[in-house]
Design a protein that fits this description.
With 246 residues, this protein is mainly alpha-helical. Helices cover 43% and strands 5% of the residues. The relative contact order is 0.13.
């Protein structure tokens, strides 16, 4: 049974068993778990101040992920040159992933994997992320959206922002939009200065994001994180498509 939008804020839960659950788009914030059992649990999450048995695990997991892929450590830059290096890594990695995807029949690139996005939907979401955090927040376009932009599934929805999850554009069409967005981000990062990186941006026009005095650096870090994580998901899903066809 699928249930949505259960808010347990402030609840005091005792003797609760969660077995066989699939939780997506949720959050555990300012929570305390005592005397609980965690067996066979698979978690993909943003971690901050997560203490298990007295050990803060977020730095340990971060270090292990960086050990597995040392280039990941370059995705949290602090200088304009660092951002340029990070973006070059992402464009190279994504070019490799797209080359791999082109070897698949296009109908498979529309195939959701494990109830997640398809490969083409993933590309559409990255176009949305670039439009939101670079075109809107940094470049100041209040409505930069392309009709194929795809917000995340649990987004609240906004007037004027496209959200057609079921659209089935061709790979070439999506890659053309994607190339424009990549060029836009590259242009911003290529011209990035220390003063800009230390500055803030404000967007209060209707739509999303709406932020006041938001660090420009954080806008770019969000885009880098989206690009890195969704390429990782895309590679995972392409592996699954190969396995399913064997």
């Amino acid at each position: 049974m699928q249930r949505r939008e259960h808010d347990l804020t402030g609840e005091d839960l005792r003797h609760v068993v969660v077995r066989g659950a699939d939780v997506r788009g949720g959050g555990f914030v300012d929570c305390r778990l005592r005397g609980v059992d965690l067996y066979n649990v698979d978690i993909h999450a943003e971690l901050q101040n997560v203490v298990i048995n007295g050990v803060e695990i977020a730095p340990l997991i971060d270090a292990e992920l960086n050990r597995r892929d040392p280039e990941r450590a370059k995705l949290r830059p602090n200088t304009p040159e660092g951002f340029r290096d990070a973006w070059a890594i992402l464009e190279r990695r994504w070019a490799e992933t797209v080359r791999r995807a082109r070897r698949f029949p296009e109908e498979l690139l529309h195939e959701p994997v494990d109830d997640e996005w398809s490969f083409i939907q993933t590309l559409r979401h990255l176009c949305f992320a670039s439009d939101a955090w670079v075109a809107r927040m940094i470049l100041g376009d209040p409505s930069p959206w392309h009709p194929l932009d795809l917000p995340w599934d649990e987004a609240p929805g906004w007037d004027g922002i496209p959200w057609d999850r079921e659209a089935r554009p061709g790979l070439a069409e999506v890659l053309a939009v994607r190339a424009e967005r990549q060029a836009m981000v590259r242009g911003v990062i290529d011209g990035l200065t220390e003063d800009q990186l230390a500055g803030t941006v404000t967007r209060t026009e209707p739509g999303w994001p709406q932020e006041e005095e938001f660090p420009l650096k954080e806008c770019l870090l969000i885009v880098l994180n989206e690009e890195w994580e969704h390429r990782r998901y895309a590679e995972r899903d392409l592996d699954a498509l190969v396995s399913a066809s064997d």
